Amino acid sequence: xxxxxxxxxxxxxxxxxxSYLTAAxxxxxxxxxxxxPFARGLxxxxxxxxPPTPPRAPAPLxxxxxxxxxxxxxxxxxxDAVARNFGPDPDRLExxxxxxxxxxxxxxxxxxxxxxxxxxxxxxxxxxxxxxxxHGIAKMAYRQGxxx
Length: 148
Fold this sequence. Notes:
Layout: E1 11-13, E2 20-22, H1 23-27, E3 34-35, H2 63-77, E4 82-85, E5 92-99, H3 106-117, E6 122-129, H4 137-144, E7 146-147
Parallel strand pairs: 5-6
Antiparallel strand pairs: 1-2, 2-3, 4-5, 4-7
């Protein structure tokens, strides 16, 4: 441990956490106080938040594509399933399905049928259970998606 010379209060570096301890802190637990340089002075300012991004309208679908998507979703998830188109990129189709059915492998079966009949660079399918809290991309689908 190092001692500071010519100081009225002697400080030394603690090996446990690298902080400075006063001579009073060494004398007993009741007088223990850590001196942490720059603890509040430099790090108490929060950055300014950026404004929220405006919602973007989804890319339009042809009527034949819209009907095929609705029929495919109905076939795999039942007539009460709600399908939403929410992707703004016309080359990438982003779909969200809200259903009461269990979340299982039929998502991939449904996606396979959609990929074989719709000509897009990429098709994304997000499936959530009705009443469940929306997370991630499903939030965007609820906010800016168009029900088919």
